[in-house]
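Workshop exercise sheet. Pairs work together: one partner reads the sequence aloud, the other fills in the structure field after running the prediction. Swap roles for the next sheet.
Pair: D.N. / O.F.
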Amino acid sequence: MAYSEKVMDHFANPRNVGEMPDADGIGEVGNSKCGDIMKMYIKVEDDIITDVSFKTFGCGAAIATSSMATELVKGKPISEALQLTNKAVMEALDGLPPVKVHCSVLAEQAIKAALSDYYTKKGIDPEPIVGKATDCDECHFHN
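Structure field:
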């Protein structure tokens, strides 16, 4: 299974790693059955994601996609972060092997879960803005 140089770089030198105790939103996706668990933390000021960090339990691709996803949304308006797709994460990493595509899906879901939490904490129903929360339905890739 070949990984791109960007995947290897984000795995070996992940960006924005760690807990954020004063996060405005926290999203956790994945499950122990699947083996990959991602937790995203965001800080928001004036509808801009001013800071983002993550903690991921999983394979190298899970760490790399988490790292890249944080880079893609940091400093961006929430409206732009909501447009983040797993395809965009994969393209930014110059691709992923087919059996690792689920990692990019989790990265997209983790960002959206953190934004849902942000809106919930503000007393706003997140579903019309962020969409319905989804489960780790890509887990069938793990054998």
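Discussion prompt: The chain has a mean pLDDT of 91. What would you look at next?
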